[in-house]
């Protein structure tokens, strides 16, 4: 179990919800619901195995915010920046991060200051995750796929709207 994963299980004071997601469209739709709740400075941490749907979820967020272009996985570039009217989003993928010290060079703090941040493979930088965040765990559970949402800080009040 990762440090961030254990934090989500034991310290999600804002609550935790489990939502079925049957297919790629459902994962994208859940991302769109999160987009409706985003405010400047938010961090959404996307956990899941390879192929779990982290980038699909991020695409749902970005499309709902008005990005009409391509949304590639940032696995090789480590970060992709998107500017939409009224909001900027930095989409990080830390899977190939060589050293946690590189987070500063990638501009994680600046990205949060400038807009909102989506982070794939956040467990690699668990120490750098802010206490105010939404964790999205994309998992297989008993023959089906679920999204487990864990709210921290200001996300506690927004979690109920995400699952309504």
* Amino-to-carboxy terminus distance: 29 Å
Q: Could you state the order of secondary-structure elements as H and E? A: HEHEHEEHHEEEH
The geometry reads as globular
State the total count of DSSP E strands. Answer: 7
* Structural class designation: alpha/beta
Which blocks of ≥5 consecutive residues have pLDDT under 50? 1-11
Number of H- or I-type helical stretches: 6
Account of the protein in words:
- The protein contains 6 helices and 7 strands; from the N terminus they run αβαβαββααβββα.
- With 164 residues, the protein is an alpha/beta fold.
- A hairpin with a 2-residue loop joins strand 6 and strand 7.
- Helix 2 crosses helix 3.
- 36% of the residues are buried.
Topology record:
Blueprint: H1 3-11, E1 16-20, H2 24-35, E2 43-47, H3 54-64, E3 79-84, E4 87-93, H4 102-106, H5 108-114, E5 116-120, E6 134-141, E7 144-151, H6 155-162
Parallel strand pairs: 2-5, 2-6, 4-5
Antiparallel strand pairs: 1-7, 3-4, 6-7
Gist?
With 164 residues, the protein is α/β, with parallel strands linked by helices.
Task: Name the features.
164 residues; alpha/beta; 7-stranded mixed sheet; 6 helices; 7 strands; globular; disordered N terminus
């Amino acid at each position: 179990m990762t440090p961030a994963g254990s934090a989500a299980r034991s310290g999600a004071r804002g609550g935790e919800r489990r939502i079925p997601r049957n297919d790629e469209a459902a994962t994208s739709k859940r991302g769109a619901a999160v987009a409706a709740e985003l405010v400047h400075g938010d961090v959404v941490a996307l956990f899941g195995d390879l192929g779990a749907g982290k980038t699909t979820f991020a695409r749902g967020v970005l499309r709902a915010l008005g990005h009409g272009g391509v949304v590639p996985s940032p696995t090789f570039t480590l970060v992709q920046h998107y500017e939409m009217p009224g909001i900027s989003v930095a989409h990080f993928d830390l899977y190939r991060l060589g050293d946690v010290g590189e987070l500063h060079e990638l501009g994680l703090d600046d990205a949060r200051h400038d807009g909102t941040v989506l982070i794939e493979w956040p467990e690699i930088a668990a120490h750098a995750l802010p206490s105010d965040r939404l964790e999205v765990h994309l998992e297989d559970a008993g023959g089906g796929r679920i999204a487990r949402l864990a709210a921290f800080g200001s996300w506690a009040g927004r979690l109920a709207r995400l699952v309504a």
